[in-house]
Amino acid sequence: MPTQLVYDVVYQNDSWIMVKTQDDSLFNRLYDEGYERVVLLNELPDGTFEYVIGKKTEATDNFPVGPATEPGTILYELNGMENGWAGSTQYGGAPLNSDGSRSLLTPQMIIDVINKIISDSEALNAVFRSSEFSGPINPVDLFAREILNYQVDTERLGRVKYVNLDNAATTPPLLSVQKGVEEYLRSYGSVHRGAGTKSKISTDIYEDTRQVIKDFVGAPENFYVMFSGNTTGAMNMAAYFFSFLEGRVAVSEIEHSSSWLPWIKAEGEKALGAVQRSMEKVPDDQERIQIEGRKKVLRYPLDKHGEFDLAGIENLLKNNKIKAFVLTASSNLTGYRPEIKKIGELVHRYGAHYIVDACQFLQHHKIDMMEMGIDFLAASGHKFYAPYGGGFLIGPKYFLDDFLPYQIGGGNLPYITKEGVFLRYKNQLAHDPGTPNAVGAVAMAVALRQIQSIGVDNIEEYETSLARQAYDELVKIDRVKLLVKPEHLSTVIPFIIEGQDSRAAADRLNREFGVGVRAGSFCVYDMVRDLLKIKDESKIVEAVSHGDTSLIPGIIRASFALCNDTEDVARLVKAVDFIARNK
């Protein structure tokens, strides 16, 4: 008969056990009993404790393992030990004080810490679990069947699967995101405020999303992740902070209005000062805000090749005191991607901060804030398969700690005195007012984990291949004019059908063929006017001022993402060809 184990059990549950003993051989015997994690406890004569913490295999995650110890002995190697638990070896010692003395943590403290780590880690793993990627990309492995096979009635094809080619505007949720959000909602509670279990779990998971986001974009460790509703909110936040600093702002002429107008508003408000007026004067002041703001926000153009001229940018930086230089990482209309790193080097050479709008970039191409020299990064979750109302602005702690938060109220300040003086945090929480959109933050983290699992290089190859197939076929169709250069081709294809209104043609693509695209100016009016060679906009302005939007110039845009396949390309080409030939 096997020898029955004899030991003094201090604590045990299904996954781990703590034993009071001086017998190191219990490790393997307890592993054989089915425990994945084991803690051996020895109480010393002076009332302190020593522990050896072990796990059955290196693959057993989420268990606090301390500084490396010699397996098979309860003695510690004191040299090089650190406070707290660290490392990933199979065995570890419990925390030691800096002078090498034994731990003053009681067994119950150790039990509480370990159980919390295991509980939180299990909850995190359940939420952040992403589908393992293997082999070629196939949308059916990444999205819910109901999303991919959404049925619509069409005039020419009958009832068919809808083809979504408006992904540059917004993307459907990944299946892993849907599941992660559903899992998170099981334990959802008030973030940052509650004392209950659900609140604690929800808060821990919510806060862990910041690290997931930072890791994905290569942000420095001492940077903050501040949540917003979208990129528009993120840019308004950035513009608020910079409005307190002297200098001007540089924004490109291909920048989305969400990355342009917030700077005009913030700079104009600051220039206007704290003047208080009667209600009758408000309209005049609102106009003055725009006038003064435009003086502070400079535009830098594209050259004749449709790219940024580095010499021109350097000249702008050299001759103006630029405090914030704003750049889109990828055009939402043509897909043109400037040389982010080279431009950043110029920006820093002249002492400006570098703000990058990555909402059309990070889900398609690799991004690394440190490598590219980016000071602030903005993006929207709904652009990268997490349409739950989340966005973010990432920026340096040294900068953000100097400012009062963009918004303030409950949750982001620790105390208010009787006189109304509020004390503030010097951490990320200061910039996180009220009850946050934790679901949006979790959705973004899960989506980025999934994108990482698939591999951004694989995604880029897959999506670019679809766009290239579409480009090569569309360019053959008479009366179809593509407005993107082959060398700039990414995931978006802007085009017009000559002799046809773009909005009407986009409506026909949807109504007759079940193909969803977008038509309009895409909030980059300068670029659209340039592509369509519109020199005089006086009639447009007059019509819009009378409520008539029919003269606003428009372009059709098809945009590809992970949810698309070659059948979608074929449907688009077939539909455009028919509409071009049948006005």
What does it look like?
The chain has 18 helices and 22 strands. The protein is α/β, with parallel strands linked by helices and 583 residues long. The chain has three domains: 119 residues; 150 residues, Alpha-Beta Complex (Aspartate Aminotransferase, domain 1); 277 residues, Aspartate Aminotransferase, domain 2, CATH 3.40.640.10. A seven-stranded mixed beta sheet has the order 9-15-14-13-12-10-11, sandwiched between helices. The protein has a five-stranded mixed beta sheet with strand order 1-2-3-4-5, covered by helices on one side. A four-stranded antiparallel beta sheet has the order 18-19-22-21, with helices on one face. Strand 1 and strand 2 form a beta hairpin. Helix 15 crosses helix 18. It is globular. About 7% of the residues have low confidence.
SS summary, helix count: 18
Global geometry = globular
Model regions low in confidence, pLDDT < 50 over at least 5 residues? 65-102
Helix content: 25-40%
Q: Which architecture of the largest domain does the CATH hierarchy give at level 2? A: 3-Layer(aba) Sandwich
The total strand number stands at 22
CATH topology of the largest domain: Aspartate Aminotransferase, domain 2
Amino-to-carboxy terminus distance: 90 Å
Question: What portion of the residues fall into strands of 2 or more residues?
Answer: 15-25%
CATH class of the largest domain: Alpha Beta
Q: What is the topology, as strand order, of the major beta sheet? A: 9-15-14-13-12-10-11
Q: Whole-number radius of gyration?
A: 29 Å
For the largest beta-sheet, the strand count, sense and barrel status come to: 7 strands, mixed
The CATH homologous superfamily of the largest domain corresponds to: Type I PLP-dependent aspartate aminotransferase-like (Major domain)
Helix/sheet category? alpha/beta
The averaged pLDDT comes out at 85
How many structurally independent domains? Answer: 3
